[in-house]
TrEMBL record:
The species this protein was found in: Paraburkholderia sprentiae WSM5005
Protein known as: BON domain-containing protein
Residue span, BON domain: 55-123
Biased composition (Polar residues): 25-37
Chain intervals for the UniProt region annotation (Disordered): 25-52
Domain of life of the native organism: Bacteria
Keywords attached to this entry: Signal
Extent of the signal sequence: 1-24
PANTHER family: BON DOMAIN-CONTAINING PROTEIN
Gene3D superfamilies: 3.30.1340.30
InterPro entries found in the cross-reference section: BON_dom, Lipoprotein_DolP, Transpt-assoc_nodulatn_dom_bac
Amino acid sequence: MKSIQARALAIATLILAASGNAWSQPGQAASAPSGTPGTPGMEANAASPVSARKANRALRRQVYAAIGKHKEISAGNISVTARGSVVTLNGTVTDASQVNQVAEIAKGVPGVTSVINKLTVQKPLGGM
């Protein structure tokens, strides 16, 4: 069961990466300010909505990758939304201790300043 969920997470990560490439267009990169490559926080505030969406997707992928490194967490039922530097976690985990653990993992990702944790515990079917 864990290998299926791990595969699902890997496939979801690949789909997210592919969709990010599909949305990027050659003409869009030229509209970014050229004087701010070293200031990651300033780009999202001063840049176009397209750049903000790209930054949000990148942050979301980083959070998914960080959660995926913890094999004890079933991440197949967790969704991550990023808006600016705020990450929202939705979905279910199998153990109550994982609710806070996933939030701490997300807080540890560079660029995340705040985490809104809406995770709940779902007992496995047929389990006691």
